[in-house]
Amino acid sequence: MKFSIVALVAILALFHGTECASLAKRDVQSDVDRITQLIKDMSATFNSATLEMVQKVKALEVTSAAQTYATESRTKIQPLVEKVQAEATKLQQQVKPFIANIEELTKPLTENLNAQVKPLTDSVHAQVKPLTDSMIDFFKQVADQTKALLPPQ
Known about the structure:
Blueprint (H helix, E strand, L loop, with lengths): L1 H148 L4
């Protein structure tokens, strides 16, 4: 019987030892799986961060290139703008005497036209004034008669 108990204890110890080893193996495997997943997640995060950083750098490069282009274009166009402004000023100075001469030539003509038209407009005004006055009186009379027809309030 002692032998059976010793054998039973030995079998239990052996069974317990193999069970512990298998549990240890399972824990190691799950740890390995968790570490593998963690490394995969870190790799994905690192890849997305790198991609995002590359896109931002490209955007900055495009912005920088656009600013450089604008600055270079402004630098190239500035002399042309200054030249056009100088030519416009010269042209204005050259045209001033011509315009003044045209004004001097047209001034007597406009004064003569005004002198001829003024009596005509004064005559028309004098003829139309009595008509407008009578129309105003007529409309006042119509307004007064309309007010008289309205019921009292």
